[in-house]
Amino acid sequence: MHIITVCLGNICRSPAAEAVLHARLEEAGLDDVTVSSAGTADYHVGDRPHSQSQAEGESRGYAFTSRGAQLVAGDLEAADLVVVMDSSNEEDVLALAPTPEDEAKVVRLGAFASDATEGGDVADVPDPWGQSREAFVAMYDQVEDAVAGLVAAISEDRVDEVLAAYRAAR
């Protein structure tokens, strides 16, 4: 399975989600899952993660190896799951999806969070760019919770179930 995490610029939220996923998948022994990240815009192609995002992540024990990349249609075709951070990212990715099968792979990270509802109430992961350290702390708290749910869904072979419920509520 290949997962791509996606936000706007690929320097705050999606590299954070990528790093958290790498760590949690390794802890769960799920070595057949790969993760990458990308942004819907080309603002930060080639850049390292935002200094505050990286600092908060490293303080929590996460490693960052990727650089900013822009999502392209071919990425969607190669992915099994495309995890977006907010509804705006979702709209951008769905507009880029070349096929209905690729559209079906797109889900907001919040669909896996402990506070997600069966009726489709899914929280966005707010963009902390340009905000205080507290915004990055809150982002990581939210990402860690949702990633725990995503890793559990992978371990329990429930990803398709979550996607179906999410699409039904979309």
How does this structure look, described?
- A 4-stranded parallel β-sheet has the order 2-1-3-4, sandwiched between helices.
- The protein has 170 residues and is an alpha/beta fold.
- The protein starts with a strand and ends with a helix.
- It is globular and about 35 Å long.
- Helix 1 (13-27) crosses helix 6 (133-155).
- The protein has 7 helices and 4 strands.
- It has a single domain, classed as Response regulator (Rossmann fold, 3-Layer(aba) Sandwich).
- Strand 1, helix 1 (13-27) and strand 2 form a beta-alpha-beta unit.
How many beta-strand elements? Answer: 4
Mean pLDDT: 96
User: What is the helix/strand order?
Assistant: EHEHHEHHEHH
Indicate the CATH topology: Rossmann fold
Sheet with most strands: 4 strands, parallel
Look at the structure and name the CATH superfamily.
Answer: Response regulator
- How would you write the strand order of the largest sheet? 2-1-3-4
Annotation field: number of helices: 7
Strand content: 5-15%
Keywords:
170 residues, alpha/beta, Rossmann fold, four-stranded parallel β-sheet, globular, Ptyr_pPase
Break the fold down into its secondary structure elements and pairings.
Layout: E1 2-7, H1 13-27, E2 34-39, H2 51-59, H3 73-78, E3 81-84, H4 87-96, H5 100-103, E4 106-108, H6 133-155, H7 159-169
Parallel strand pairs: 1-2, 1-3, 3-4
Helix pairs in contact: 1-6, 2-6
Summarize the structure.
InterPro entries: LMW_PTPase, Ptyr_pPase, Ptyr_pPase_sf, Tyr_phospatase_low_mol_wt. With 170 residues, the chain is of the alpha/beta class. It contains seven helices and four strands, in the order βαβααβααβαα.
